[in-house]
Amino acid sequence: MTAAPAALRSARARWTAMADETTWQASLVKAVGFETAQHARNRLALMLVLFFIPAWLGLVTGILPSSPIEYQSRITGDLITVPANELGLMSAAINAVTLIVGFMMFAAMRRSSEFDQRLVLAGYSRSGLLLAKLVALVLVAVVVSAYAALSMTFFTDVHQGALLGLSLFASGLTYGGIGIVLGVAVSTELAGMFVIIMISLVDVMVQNPVINPGRDQTLVQFLPTYGAMQSGVAATFTEEVSARHLLLGPMWLVAFAVFGLVAFYARTRDHSSHSDAPPPAPPTAMVTLRTLPDGTMVVESHQGPILLCSHTDCELEPEGS
After folding, report:
1. pLDDT in tens, 115-128
2. In 206-238, which positions are buried (b, 16+ CB within 10 angstroms) versus exposed (e)?
3. N or C: which terminus of the chain carries fewer CB neighbours within 10 A?
């Protein structure tokens, strides 16, 4: 019973000692802590995870009919007959996970924009900051996909629960990558959220034979959640496993991460680099000095004000005087 408090005190002491360290590893750990704390403060996303996922799955189960429907599985190589409402559950779970994870990563990227720039100015590595965001994405995707997979077991008999969780995890990684890219590329939060919602709806809906009864999947296989959908259906209704389809999600994440890294470098470059251009020259004044026959000296300014000083005080004369 005393092991947990002791481990907590040790971790707290290690975290306090790390505050003064400036190594890349220490910066990465601290950046991961910042990202995790930011996601934990996103109460709207946490409420969506807790209540939206089971409510959405329950609604789909109650609305869709349970009539049999044929689904083209590329993993089994055959048409498999499944209940329409249970297949709809798979689509709804992927839709919920992709929307929530994509929204959380997009919101985190948008809200941490100025903070990231300050961290870069403080000496944090930009590659380390982006890696911290990817670590936070993995943590968020694990929690959301595990909860969604657990929720599905209350509505249908899942043949392979772990594989179902991995399939949802892969879809979360894909849309987390999309959220990162949109967070650095889109100018407004409304536009980013609209793009995530539309991509997720089209991506998931056209893979469901209830919406798209066609057999031709030539274009469908290029959709971001194609691998997750195929793997998830196989996990829910069969005993088949396909690592190739599972890896499609991480491959999409790598592609989006590369794009996000380039955009992140471009966004923070102007605030962290020093210009090689010489400093601007100080303003100069052009004056003409004339001596009158009575011995008086006249000072005329052609550019910029001049400051005339006597033994007792100074007087500022405007340009042209």
Report:
1. 888 888 888 888 88
2. bbbbbeeeeeebeebeebbbbbbbbbbbbbbbb
3. N
pTM of this prediction?
0.76
Q: What does residue 46 show for φ and ψ, rounded to 5 degrees?
A: -65, -40
Is the Cα dihedral 162, 105, 18, 264 positive or negative? positive
Positive or negative: CA dihedral 13, 17, 23, 26? positive
Q: Are 109 and 118 in contact (CB under 8 A)?
A: no
- Residue 39 tokens read as 């996601």
Listing DSSP states for 260-301 in one string gives HHHHHHHHHHHHHS---SPPPPPP--EEEEEE-TTS-EEEEE
Give Cα 181 to chain centroid, integer Å: 6
Please count the other Cβ atoms lying within 10 Å of the Cβ belonging to residue 30. Answer: 18
* pLDDT for 140 beyond 90: yes
Rg (alpha carbons) of the chain, rounded to whole number: 31
Shortest CA distance to 268 belongs to which of 129, 75, 76, 106? 129
Question: Which residues neighbour 122 within 8 Å (Cβ) at sequence distance 6 or greater?
Answer: none
Q: Give the CB-side neighbour count of residue 51, counting CA atoms within 13 A.
A: 6
